[in-house]
Amino acid sequence: MPIRLLQLTDLHLFGDPHGQLLGITTRGSFEAVLELALSSDAQPSAIVVSGDLVHDETPAGYRYLRETLKRTDLPHYCVAGNHDDVGLMQEHLGSAALGSVALRRLRSWNLVFLDSSVSGQEGGHLTAAQLNQLQDLLEENRAPTAIFLHHHPVPIQSAWMDTMGVDNGSELIALCDRNPHIKALVFGHIHQSFSAKHGECSILGAPSTCFQFLSGSKDFAIDDSPPGYRELTLYPDGSLATKVVRLEHYAELPLHQVGGY
To answer: Which residues, in sequence order, are CB contacts of 41 under 8 Å at separation 6+?
Structure first.
């Protein structure tokens, strides 16, 4: 049986259930996307939440996320984003909050999770220790591997966003070249769908569960595309299939604010 992963990202939750960001009530949009993701006839294997979980760094926001994910009865894995408080994540999400480098084995695949967040910075970085540990893990087990992190390790051709990726992403790409059993690099942060190939490795970004950024934009810009998620299907032979799924309609439209948030 293949593995079906649901990637939800950039939730930007608040402790207040009615908390909004750019006009979107982020709990409401997250719940709508999660309901859509769980509505398929195909049973999900696990949920990956790839950063920017809670926007206002409140314990209540993380507790809400913990209880919501727990109710799915699915394994779930959370990595930190630039808006997260790692200490609060660990305190309130427990074992679902993954550390600097984490490996989870799911049937014939290895799922590796990297914390690319840097305290006080919008962009990301992977330390030499993280990259060395990752290389050691890859040498120990040559199973097909998908790597998840928050920040994008390659340019997405959006000038303002590309100043906030992994600043040494080329080192992660070089590591993929040395380890062809890495089949996918999967990230959040960019609030839009992105798909590219580097050799046999798929490089994949996902829409946010709240508001979206305009693809290919030189400056900060909002897109009216509805919230969504990415689904990955991982096969025993090391191949994968993936698609982005969005809500058909969402009642709230984001505010087209100039300059960021």
So the answer is: none
User: What tokens were used for 82?
Assistant: 């630039």
Q: Which CATH code fits 3-246?
A: 3.60.21.10
CA-CA distances (angstroms) from residue 70 to 3, 66, 94, 149? Answer: 20, 6, 11, 21
**What tens-digit pLDDT sequence spans the chain (261 residues)?**
899 999 999 999 999 999 999 999 999 999 999 999 999 888 999 999 999 999 999 999 999 999 999 999 999 999 999 999 999 999 999 999 999 999 999 999 999 999 999 999 999 999 999 999 999 999 999 999 999 999 999 999 999 999 999 999 999 999 999 999 999 999 999 999 999 999 999 999 999 999 999 999 999 999 999 999 999 999 999 999 999 999 998 999 998 876 787
Q: What are phi and psi of 148, to 5 degrees?
A: -120, 135
Q: Going along the chain, which residue ranges are E strands?
A: 3-8, 20-21, 24-25, 46-50, 76-79, 101-106, 109-114, 145-149, 182-187, 194-198, 201-205, 212-213, 222-223, 228-234, 240-246
Q: Which residue, among 44, 36, 50, 35, has the nearest Cα to 2 in the 3D structure?
A: 44
Q: Residue ranges of the alpha helices (H) in 39-127?
A: 59-70, 86-93
Per DSSP bridges, beta strands 20-21 and 24-25 are antiparallel
